[in-house]
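Forgive a beginner's question, but would it be possible to get a protein, spelled out as residues, together with the matching structure tokens, please?
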Amino acid sequence: AIKTAISATMNSTKDYINRTEALRLAGTSYWLLGRPRKALKIWKQSIDTGKLLNARLELSRTYFEAGKRILMSLRNDGNAAKRTIADMKKIIGLTPEECLEQAEKMFLEMELRWDLEELRKVRDIIEINL
């Protein structure tokens, strides 16, 4: 997964349209492999790239992915998640809740019903488990 994500990210230097998405997917791969700081750094690159290229769809989904992953991790390992939240604030400049709020705002502006439903599901799960 990491090799594919790195390859997609490297190829996206030639194809800027896909760079934001490739970085988001790379960040998710690092997250799933238990490397949260690396994931946060890659998601930050995705956010910066999305802003630079005005790639609103993928930018909104990067905010959602980062916020979702960290808040969902609170259910499994609260102490590690709290450290990751502090790291997120330093690296990305937002809390997980702020990332979800930013994603929601962008989803509403673009009228992305499926994404809004996914966001609602995540919030429901978080409320139930916290």
